[in-house]
Automatic annotation (TrEMBL):
Highest taxon of the lineage: Eukaryota
Residue stretches spanning the membrane: 62-84, 96-116, 122-138
SUPFAM superfamilies listed in its UniProt record: Multidrug resistance efflux transporter EmrE
Protein name in UniProt: Transmembrane protein 42
Keywords: Membrane, Signal, Transmembrane, Transmembrane helix
Entry annotated with the keyword Protease: no
Signal peptide from the UniProt entry: 1-18
């Protein structure tokens, strides 16, 4: 039961990694702006020779996008592996699905804030709180059912 929960949480986390990788690989402007900012910062700190401009950023974002595309596919493969294991080790498919979804939403929120500077409205947080409440109710009821099954066997 606990292993199914851990697999579901990891599946949600890797799903969030996959979606962040997709956003990075398909949105060329973010990686290019990140490169421009890094070059400007390194030039100001004296790490680069004066006169070096950000022309490298015109082409560097292409291999970075390819790397993010590879991360997208690998994170997706790992996510599906963990989700399949969560289904196998959970007492119901609903538990694994809801836990993975909640983990994905929360991980996506933190990754979106950390990588892209996104913020969510209060209504979004209310919605995720309701999902988590439902998740706790779902896991709590399955624990009671398992305890009743053990008592019936005795």
């Amino acid at each position: 039961m606990l292993t199914g929960l851990m697999y579901a949480l990891l599946a949600g986390l890797f799903g969030a990694f996959a979606s962040s990788s997709a956003k990075l690989s398909l949105g060329a402007t973010y990686l290019k702006e990140l490169c421009d900012t890094a070059v400007r910062k390194w030039t100001e700190e004296g790490n680069l020779t004066p006169g070096v401009d950000s022309t490298a950023c015109e082409w560097v974002h292409i291999p970075l996008r390819l790397v993010c595309g590879l991360l997208l596919f690998s994170s997706n493969a790992v996510m599906w592996t963990f989700f399949a294991k969560a289904l196998r080790h959970s007492s119901s498919s609903a538990q694994a699905t809801v836990t993975t979804t909640a983990s994905n939403f929360i991980s996506s929120a933190f990754l979106g804030y950390g990588i892209f500077g996104e913020s969510h409205a209060l209504l979004w947080w209310v919605g995720i709180s309701l999902i988590l409440l439902g998740l706790f109710l779902l896991h709590g009821s399955s624990l009671k059912d398992q305890q009743l099954d053990v008592k019936k066997d005795d």
